[in-house]
Amino acid sequence: MFQVDEARLAGPLTQPLGYMRRTREWYLGLGYDKPYEWAHNPDAPFTRPSKPLAEMTVALITTAAPYQADKGPQGPGAPYNSAAKFYEVFSGPTDSDPDLRISHVGIDRKNADMADQGAWFPLKALRKVLASGRIGAIARRFHGAPTNRSQRHTMEVDAPELLKRLREDGVDAAILVPNCPVCHQTCTLVARHLEENGIVTVVMGAAKDIVEFAGAPRFLFSDMPLGNAAGRPNDPESQLRTLNLALDLLEHAPGPRTTLASPEEFRADHSWKLDYSNIHQQTPEQIKALMEEAEAARILARQIREDTLKKEG
């Protein structure tokens, strides 16, 4: 956690934010006394490309959720909305533009742009690289990976389902774009499963500590607020450059656990890193209100999850 006096120093703020520590201190401050145990893998599976990128079919995997008009605010400025969460893998066509939102996850609501879908779902940028001939094809479907705190469920249910759908679409490589802290873990675990089964992957993310701790085969790190990992918002050229860096990794990563840091900056002033889940910036009154809000969201999310499991059963 950054201390108050560090806000005046350029050095610490230019380093990647420690999301595991920040999240742990946040929830301890809200009264949850059992810190979450993040997935840890010291090594990673690694599949080398079997063909040139210009011949590959590339798929997108996202943790953003389809807009649901009956689920409350989900657009720019929306608060955390657990009603909009999803707990099953979903798919959608890539020949049209879906309406995906990120209000259901723990993004940086003070700094991340919630309006520019290109900042978290790089389909338009992927179409540009297809037109340039850099990739062979875009898979006919994109896929949604549930943001599941249960690592076991991710590995035993969601990852195999995603692999099945990618194989149905003849996919050679997958680009995974997470949003919140747990999303970063989810996408890393899915990427590991896909690599173990012959599909080349790259995670495009903003939570460096979580992805590297979980052991991603390839990781493009963008020092952006959570929710904007696909490039600077409202800047299509930044998003295209970011995607091309991810494709560079697909082609040229020398081995497992390769991290490439994007040179793209959110803005020259890095003080935005002081904002995300910083319990030390909250008054006692704010903490009390946040505790009540977090508990209500937890109960609602649990009910949605239980209803989903009943439907599956």
Features:
oxidoreductase activity, acting on X-H and Y-H to form an X-Y bond, with a disulfide as acceptor, Glycine reductase, disordered N terminus, alpha/beta
Summarize the entry for a quick read.
This protein is α/β, with parallel strands linked by helices. The chain is built from eight helices and ten strands.
Give an account of the 3D structure.
The protein is α/β, with parallel strands linked by helices and 313 residues long. The chain has one domain (10-313). The protein contains eight helices and ten strands. It has helices spanning 10-13, 19-29, 123-131, 151-168, 181-196, 208-214, 236-252, 284-312; strands spanning 57-62, 65-66, 90-93, 100-101, 137-138, 141-144, 173-177, 200-205, 218-221, 258-261. Strand 9, helix 7 and strand 10 form a beta-alpha-beta unit. The termini are far apart. Residues 1-11 have low confidence and may be disordered.
Poorly predicted ranges: 1-11
Rg (C-alpha, Å)? 19 Å
First-to-last CA distance: 42 Å
- Round the mean pLDDT to the nearest integer and report it: 90
Largest sheet: 8 strands, mixed
Order of helices and strands: HHEEEEHEEHEHEHEHEH
Total beta strand runs: 10
Amount of helix:
25-40%
Tell me what portion of residues adopts beta-strand conformation: 5-15%
Basic shape:
globular
Put simply, the count of helices is: 8
Described by its quaternary structure, the protein is: single chain
Instruction: Provide the structure class.
Output: alpha/beta
